[in-house]
Automatic annotation (TrEMBL):
Residues noted as binding substrate in the record, renumbered to the chain: T15, A16, I17, G18, K19, T20
Protein's name in the database: tRNA dimethylallyltransferase
Catalytic activities: adenosine(37) in tRNA + dimethylallyl diphosphate = N(6)-dimethylallyladenosine(37) in tRNA + diphosphate
Biological source species: Marixanthomonas ophiurae
Cofactor annotation: Mg(2+)
UniProt function note: Catalyzes the transfer of a dimethylallyl group onto the adenine at position 37 in tRNAs that read codons beginning with uridine, leading to the formation of N6-(dimethylallyl)adenosine (i(6)A).
Site (Interaction with substrate tRNA): S104, R126
InterPro entries, sorted: Dimethylallyltransferase, IPT, P-loop_NTPase
Chain residues that bind ATP: G13, P14, T15, A16, I17, G18, K19, T20
NCBIfam families given in the database record: miaA
Entry keyword annotation includes Nucleotide-binding: yes
Length: 305
């Protein structure tokens, strides 16, 4: 039974929980296509370390925004919002339902609710922050963010210099906490949104993360990172799985230490994902072991409009 109005089904949850598998099952059940909102999977040069869907998964259902960009092309959440909404217009002309999947909460919210309005950043503030990062390292910027906006500090990926600098740009420009600009009045969208979340106890999530990292290493993550080392300063590569192995290649960590850091930082990332998604009271949560047919039944029962 189709929905009475265009409906976007968002599949959310922490990394390694099984979102891709569920999204494919939903796409097949609703005869539709999938939009990836995983900001790490946009880039064609990054494959193993971003856990992009396999060739079999990509043929099991039509996917969009998978390895469609290059790391050499600046690409922001605002760009994604614009392109995803344009694609949704086209898909909703043919389909009544579309699936969106990903663990990047900001990118999902940009499509479903719209981005918050931030002040324009003077170039000198941006340049000063980049200079401080180069001279003093990330830790001093992390400390400033914690002092000036403890709320945002607790949920942002503080190991990502781009995210830390972005928050400090706004703070130094406005004199207000970055978090005060979040959750402003949201934009109306011409579609209904249904949120489905996968969850598991913390130990199980951590176990799945550790297994995934081990599999990444077995399938050649180090070689992938070696090929990208000369471009390690690019924003797209400031992410878990790549930073740690760059440090290994620079002699700062042994390989075992780097792998251990990847696991630790991925676990921290999963914790921040959970913090982000738990704020959304519209999400219908399911244990990751639940059969997809039950989830499909529940979604269809929400078709009351």
């Amino acid at each position: 039974m189709p929905f009475h109005q265009p409906t976007l089904i968002c599949v959310v949850g922490p990394t390694a929980i099984g979102k891709t598998k569920l999204a494919i099952e939903l796409a097949n059940a609703f005869n539709t296509e999938i939009i990836s909102a995983d900001s790490r999977q946009f880039f064609k040069e990054m494959n193993i370390g971003t856990a992009v869907p396999s060739a079999e998964e990509l043929t099991a259902a039509p996917h969009h925004f998978i390895q469609n960009k290059t790391i050499f092309e600046p690409y922001s959440v605002g760009d994604f919002e614009t392109e995803a909404l344009q694609l949704l217009d086209k898909l909703f002309a043919r389909k009544n339902t579309v699936i969106m999947v990903g663990g990047s909460g900001l990118y999902l919210d940009a499509v479903t609710k719209g981005l918050d309005n931030f002040p324009k950043i003077p170039l000198q503030i941006r340049e000063q922050l980049n200079f401080e990062l180069e001279e003093n390292g990330l830790e001093s910027l992390q400390k400033e963010l914690e002092e000036k906006d403890a709320s945002y500090y607790k949920k942002v990926d503080i190991q990502n210099p781009h995210r830390v600098i972005r928050a400090l740009e706004v703070i130094r420009t406005s004199g207000k906490p970055y978090s005060s600009f979040l959750n402003q009045e949201k934009k109306e969208r011409p579609f209904k949104t249904v949120y489905v979340g996968l969850t598991a106890d913390r130990e199980k999530v951590y176990e799945r993360i550790n297994k995934r990292v081990d599999l990444m290493m077995e399938t050649g993550l180090l070689k992938e990172v070696e090929k990208l080392e000369s471009h390690k300063g690019l924003n797209a590569l400031q992410t878990v799985g790549y930073r740690e192995l760059f440090n290994h290649l620079e002699g700062k960590l042994t390989l075992d230490e780097a792998v251990s850091e990847i696991k630790k930082n991925t676990r921290r990332f999963a914790k921040r994902q959970n913090t982000w998604f738990k704020k959304n009271e519209s999400i219908i949560w399911f244990d990751y072991t639940v059969n997809a047919s039950k989830i499909i039944e529940t979604i269809k029962s929400k078709n009351t409009l």
